[in-house]
From TrEMBL:
The active site is at residue 359. This is Glutamine--fructose-6-phosphate aminotransferase [isomerizing]. Its EC number is 2.6.1.16. It comes from the Bacteria. It is an enzyme of class 2 (transferase). It comes from Pyramidobacter porci. One of its GO terms (biological process) is fructose 6-phosphate metabolic process. It is found in: Cytoplasm. Homodimer. Catalyzes the first step in hexosamine metabolism, converting fructose-6P into glucosamine-6P using glutamine as a nitrogen source. One of its GO terms (molecular function) is glutamine-fructose-6-phosphate transaminase (isomerizing) activity.
């Protein structure tokens, strides 16, 4: 049931406030991060890890990459993130000191399942973050952390991306806490900020008209470049993927600092560049990439936070509410989802069933 929306994707985009409330429910009581109700891992076990591997495909891989960028500040283990179809064939040095986390909305992605089997054989402790607690991946791991996002029908993942980021960050912070690595002040700061996110998500979704008019402005563009640094780099990748898969427009994401190492040659007035640049310690660096882009006449759309002053001579600015720097992906991704949706709508694409794609990829 589309609940009055023209597409499941739009319904699912708009559900993200309540999806986050559910993902946080019972995990952030009174400003503490506590998953003990569902995750029986002991502090002794948590302290044995030296390595964490986050493994997934597609949008789930980008959610895992956001989590990696956030958690490496707190969790004192070597945190790696990999694409399942690469990981499963690599000669891993993982073993009993490894916690391997498999991120899969459907729990049925074959490459992710095979990656799980590969590292399990080496003795790793395995966890699934999934929306499907009875799935193949959920059955084979040591522990499951549920997304509780509700069924997602649109082929393009939206609300499960949000739920994945939330549970991965919560689970990783909880692990850091069990290991004695999470300062109480950070736990409180992040738990409080996460509890404010559902409302801020709803505020951000109100920007839909601004985003729609930008999608119209660039309705004839054939290529887009997406840029971001740090936590915003995987957000840029997710924005580019959404645009490709539902509107069939070519979009490529780059770490903003890599632009001068090649893609800068592409820039001209025909190539719109979407820059994800919220207020964080990397903002100034990203704004210098905006300067380089403008100097080559490429139109720029900036996705930033409300506290960042306007940048001159850009084609569009989208300002999301302020939050902790680590948590900006929960807000900056939303205009990118809406941008992809509006672009696909303009182009008359089949939004909920894009060509050549299936909701669950059970082939290699
Ligand atoms: C993109 C999309 C895919 C999936 C990928 C992994 O919108 O839906 O990229 O994210 O196929 O699927 P799961 O998470 O089910 O393993």
């Amino acid at each position: 049931d589309k609940a009055g929306y023209p597409h499941f994707m739009l319904k699912e985009i708009n559900e993200q406030g309540s999806v986050l409330r559910r993902a946080l429910f019972g995990r952030t009581a009174s400003d503490l991060i506590d998953l003990s109700g569902e995750w029986g891992i002991t502090p002794e076990k948590a302290k044995t890890f030296k390595r964490m591997d986050l493994v997934a495909c597609g949008t789930s891989f980008y959610a895992a990459t956001v989590a990696q960028r956030v958690l490496e500040k707190y969790l004192k283990v070597d945190i790696r993130v990999d694409i399942a179809s690469e990981y499963r064939y690599r000669p891993l040095r993982a073993g009993g000191d490894t916690i391997a986390v498999f991120v899969s909305q459907s729990g049925e992605t074959l490459d992710t399942l095979e990656a799980l089997r590969h590292v399990k054989e080496l003795g790793a402790y395995t966890v699934a973050a999934t929306n499907a607690p009875n799935s193949s991946i959920a059955r084979e791991v040591d522990d499951v952390i549920r997304l509780n996002a509700g069924i997602e029908i649109g082929v393009a993942a939206t609300k499960t991306f949000t739920a994945q980021m939330a549970v991965l960050i919560l689970a990783g912070l909880y692990l850091a806490k069990l290991r004695g690595e999470l300062p109480g002040a950070d736990e409180k700061r992040l738990a409080e900020a996460m509890k404010d996110l559902p409302y801020k998500v709803e505020q951000t979704l109100l920007l839909k008209d601004v985003v729609r008019s930008l999608a119209r402005k660039f309705g004839a563009a054939r290529d887009f470049l997406f840029l971001g640094r740090g936590v915003s780099y995987p957000v840029a990748m997710e924005g580019a993927l959404k645009l490709k898969e539902i509107s069939y427009v070519h979009a490529e994401a780059y770490a903003a600092g890599e632009m001068k190492h090649g893609p800068i040659a592409l820039l001209d007035e025909e190539l719109p560049v979407v820059v994800v640049a919220p207020a964080d310690e990397l903002l100034e660096k990203t704004l210098s990439n905006v300067e380089e882009t403008r100097a080559r006449k490429a139109p720029v759309i900036i996705v930033t936070t409300e506290n960042v002053p306007d940048v001159n001579d850009v084609s569009g600015t989208i300002k999301v509410p302020m939050t902790e720097a680590e948590l900006t992906p929960f807000l900056t991704v939303l205009p990118l989802q809406i941008f992809a949706y509006e672009s696909a709508l303009l182009r008359g694409c089949d939004i909920d069933q894009p060509r050549n794609l299936a909701k669950s990829v059970t082939v290699e």
